[in-house]
Write a structure and sequence with these properties.
CATH class of the largest domain: Alpha Beta
Distance between the termini: 21 Å
Helix content: 25-40%
CATH architecture of the largest domain: Alpha-beta prism
Low-confidence stretches: 121-127
Number of domains: 2
Number of strands: 24
């Protein structure tokens, strides 16, 4: 994959947003579905796939191992070969995304022994793969983490009861993939019930696999050893995409409606924001095409905010989403008082929040996990280089939208990993932003 010229965003901030914006489809759901397609010998057609860098990297990986990938606008058709070829895997593309880890589960059903490249993606400190290793061990899998790759072996797979060490989204998904094509019943306990897990459960059911307990922390899977079906599935809406615009409305004190937001994955975030003084109304908008994800239109009013009186921290679903936590850092710059954010999962991410100081924020980094933000701050334009982590990068962009004057955010690849066509979408609701 050739290197590309860096893309920059130029923002004239301090302008209120207005109108409405529709929630885009899920990054994390889409990348998990790409991996899931390897369970199926037939053709998988995915509709409303976000055309983002993370998806593009995984498509490059799929093509390199023999999968025919055909785009038609936002529809992606995936047809596997009779035999996958890992000898030709695109190691460069694979190493650029941590989502490659989710290929382990499906590939177990193709090979008794294989390697996949060590993964990259966001730079957020130690992110242990041990929950994946310990979960898959129960099915009879051995995984060795080497310097540049994972080495996976098994002598046959058997149904299992898996007790997850932590409620990891991707470890839950890998466990589902392992169980999906093993004849018999497997049980996954302390599973994540997050949106991308529910998305995968919906796809597995489309493949004819029995899955019980969707939306709970105990999943029971009735596996099918051979799957050869032509199936279609539509990617659901992305709560972190909705949260980007919720945070932008709060930070810029705007009247804005976020349409088709996956409400069940935003309710705790909205409860915190309500306590901070954000005024909004929620209107039912039906259910997404997958028949699982409940949607709502959320209309926000310009509001004066105060600091949340407790620490803000993430928890596994149905708690506040770990990917939504960073947005509270930029919102806190606009709130009266001191906000404490505890980002307990990642060793480095809270450090990136201090970049808001470059826009005029007042932060105190207490340790690699905790930061205090004193507000409200008078934010002003600045030139920054995009952090190599998706969510911290997006909060700097929101900060620039709320800052008086001109800002430049350089090398926005990390944002484009997870968000599609942000410049056009922001322009449609009154932002003055261009891509250079």
């Amino acid at each position: 994959m050739p290197d590309r010229e860096p893309i920059n965003f130029v923002v004239e901030g301090g302008r209120p947003l207005s109108g409405s914006i529709e929630t885009n489809r899920s990054k994390n759901g889409a990348v998990a579905l790409l991996a899931a397609s390897l369970l199926n010998k037939g053709t998988t057609t995915l509709h409303k796939v976000p055309v983002i860098e993370e998806v593009k990297r995984l498509v490059e990986v799929l093509e390199s191992i023999g999968v025919a990938c055909v785009w038609n606008d936002h529809t992606l058709t995936l047809t596997p070969p009779a035999v996958l070829s890992l000898d030709t895997i695109d190691k460069v593309a694979a190493a650029r995304t941590r989502s490659i880890l989710m290929f382990i589960g499906p590939l177990l059903h193709h090979f008794p022994e294989f390697d996949i490249p060590q993964s990259g993606g966001c730079t957020l400190g130690l992110r242990s793969v041990r929950p994946h290793l310990w979960a898959l061990e129960k099915f009879g899998v051995a995984i060795e983490a080497l310097t540049d790759r994972f080495q996976i072996t098994h002598d046959g797979l058997a149904p299992a009861t898996v007790i997850l060490y932590e409620s990891s989204d991707t470890a839950t998904i890998n466990s589902l993939f392992a169980a999906a094509r093993i004849n018999g019943t497997s049980v996954i306990k302390y599973a994540s019930a997050n949106y991308q897990v529910q998305e995968i459960c919906g796809y597995l059911k489309a493949l004819g696999i029995g899955v019980e307990g969707i939306g709970t922390t105990t999943l029971t899977v009735h596996g099918v050893s051979d799957i050869n079906l032509d199936v279609e599935y539509t990617v659901a809406e992305d709560p972190t995409d909705a949260m980007f615009f919720i945070a932008a409305a709060a930070a810029t004190k705007s009247a804005l409606t976020v349409r088709r937001a996956p409400i069940e994955f935003l309710e705790v975030e909205l409860a915190v924001l309500e306590k901070m003084g954000l005024h909004y109304t929620v209107t039912d908008a039906g259910i997404s095409e997958n028949g699982i994800t409940k949607l709502a239109d959320i209309s926000f009013e310009p509001s004066e905010l105060t600091a949340f009186p407790e620490k803000i921290h993430a928890r596994p679903y149905p708690g506040l989403n770990i990917d939504n936590l960073p947005f509270f850092a930029v919102i806190a710059t606009r709130a009266e008082g001191t906000t404490l954010i505890h980002d307990w999962v990642y060793e480095k991410r809270a450090i990136y929040y201090t970049e808001l100081d470059r826009l005029g924020a007042d932060t105190v980094l207490m340790d690699p996990h905790r930061i205090q933000i004193h507000g409200p701050s008078h934010l002003r334009g600045a030139e920054l280089v995009c952090p190599p982590a998706l969510r911290p990068a997006t909060i700097l962009l929101i900060g620039m939208l709320a800052s008086e004057g001109r800002s430049i955010l350089r090398n926005v690849y990390s944002i484009n990993r997870g968000y599609e066509d942000l410049v056009t979408r922001l322009t449609s609701i009154g932002a003055k932003i261009e891509q250079t």
